[in-house]
Amino acid sequence: MIYDHRTYSCHPGKIRSQLALYHEFGWPAQTRHLGQPVVFAATETGDVNSYVHIWVYKDAADRAEKRAGMMADPDWIDYLRRSSEAGYLLSQKNAILTPVPFFEGT
Fold first, then answer.
1. pLDDT of 2-42, one tens digit each?
2. C-alpha angle with apex 13: 12 to 19, nearest 5 degrees?
3. Tens-place pLDDT, residues 32-58
4. Domains in the chain, please, with CATH?
């Protein structure tokens, strides 16, 4: 199992607008291909202009297959265009995490 941990930082004052845009145009397409994330949350302390989501995959091949399907989806492509044009996002950080041997997860 692997976890795809993604942190997106928005320009100050734009996180609500970005999340509204994502909710309307990105969420339906993304969850159609990736399923439900284990976490989708806004940061409450520290960088309060950021949000995090974590997706679970069986392995790297499962991740690649699901993401390829999403990247070919016209609805997802439309969301990416809208997000780019809106310009709310400042940065993105991704990390692939693997559980340590003693962690069984949920």
1. 999 999 999 999 999 999 999 999 999 999 999 999 999 99
2. 105
3. 999 999 999 999 998 899 999 999 999
4. 2-97 (3.30.70.100)
Integer distance in angstroms from the first to the last C-alpha of the chain? Answer: 12
Cα–Cα dist 42/99, whole Å? 23
pLDDT digits (tens, 9 = 90+) for 81-100: 999 999 999 999 999 999 99
Contact by Cβ (8 Å): 56, 106: no
The DSSP-derived string for 35-103 is ---SEEEE--SSSTTEEEEEEEESSHHHHHHHHHHHHT-HHHHHHHHHHHHHT-EEEEEEEEE---TT-
Kindly list the distances between the CA atom of residue 100 and the CA atoms of 1, 3, 26, 51, 104, in Å, as whole numbers in the listed order: 10, 12, 31, 25, 9
Q: Is the separation of the CB atoms in 52 and 79 below 8 Å?
A: no
Instruction: Pull the structure tokens for residue 74.
Output: 């016209």
